[in-house]
Amino acid sequence: MKTITVLPGDGIGPEVTASAVRVLRSIMKHSQQDVQFVEKKIGGAAIDTYGTPLPQETIDQCQSSDAILLGAVGGPKWNAQSMNIRPEQGLLGIRKAMGLFANLRPVEAYQALIDSSPLKRTFVENVDFVIVRELTGGLYFGTPSERRGANNEQVVDTLAYSRTEIQRVVEKAFQLAMKRRKKLTSIDKANVLESSRMWREVVNQLAKHYPEVTVNHQLVDSAAMQLITNPGQFDVLVTENMFGDILSDEASVITGSLGMMPSASLRSDKVGLYEPVHGSAPDIAGQGKANPLATILSAALLLRYSLDMDQEASKIETAVREVLNQGYHTGDLQIDHQDDKIVNTTEITDLVINTMNQNSTVTQ
């Protein structure tokens, strides 16, 4: 039996994870797979119950699971908390505890949503790429005492990487490129940073083991421009932590909505954490307005990368695409001004499940 730990989190997190679990239960039933779901607390919800954003029992449960599905964490309710017990520390903590070093963010232009993008249709059509971001090193990791001097007049942030840390995430990117269009863009700042020069060395060394993959090195400032002016050129992009954080958020505007952006955080084995890119949106929590599609698409990634159920993952992704093409959408999306087809969280989940089941019946 496979175990999926569900971390609903805060705000709309419980609503969108509930939708994704419904979709997963439906696909598992048709596939006759035996899976159990175990729910634990993280973020603000965990602070309220345990006084910490990441209780040990949550860590223990995640470490004994085959995959983790996360909703969202944070909200103004916990803004007054000290930095070390903010809800966001729960997310950072579980990534570290699980050793999740590679963050995958697929960026796909859905035909039904192209006109919602701030970019011209000609720039957005046929966009389909994945950003692979290193997740556990670089500038974001270092204790506050290391970063701020004793006299409080100087700060230092250290960008440190070991060759091993670079190799494992770049290897993951090459493996992904082999399954896609065999094109890898490595993004760095090798004209300035020594860490980027090592990054480029590692990419070139590993490229010898993947002769079928075309490798292109691009400086991060140029890549930021190209993501907007010519996003269709990309297939798989790989970069370090901070660059990946910035570029993946920039890339989210291509699709027209953060509500359509799934993600996967992986390590060397098949265990991974899957979550939508969007935040907890506490202002609409409990109102049925939350868009669950990014979480549902994250559940599809869970099937693909952690459970080796690629066919079932594709069924979910196809069903989401078809529902959008029919004009149905939650209020945060705009589809050809079809206001008469705005549906709530439960209704769009029902539509995805029904479409998925109909497609399964047709193919049987």
Structure write-up:
This protein folds into two domains: 1-113 and 256-364, Isopropylmalate Dehydrogenase, CATH 3.40.718; 118-128 and 136-255, Isopropylmalate Dehydrogenase (3-Layer(aba) Sandwich). It is 43% helix and 16% strand. It contains 13 helices and ten strands. It has helices at residues 13-31, 44-50, 56-63, 87-98, 121-124, 144-147, 163-179, 194-207, 220-229, 241-252, 293-305, 310-325, 345-363; strands at residues 2-9, 35-39, 67-72, 102-108, 128-134, 183-188, 214-219, 236-239, 262-266, 272-276. It is globular. The chain starts with a strand and ends with a helix. 47% of the residues are buried. Its cofactor is Mn(2+); Mg(2+). Belongs to the isocitrate and isopropylmalate dehydrogenases family. LeuB type 1 subfamily.
Just name the CATH architecture of the largest domain: 3-Layer(aba) Sandwich
Q: Estimate the global geometry from the Cα principal axes.
A: globular
If strands are numbered along the chain, what order do they take across the biggest sheet? 2-1-3-10-9-4-5-8-6-7
Order of helices and strands: EHEHHEHEHEHHEHEHEHEEHHH
Number of domains: 2
User: What is the residue-averaged pLDDT?
Assistant: 92
Low-pLDDT ranges? none
* CATH fold topology of the largest domain: Isopropylmalate Dehydrogenase
As a percent range, the share of helical residues equals 40-55%
For the CA atoms, what is the radius of gyration? 20 Å
**Largest sheet composition:** 10 strands, mixed
Class computed from helices, strands and strand pairing: alpha/beta
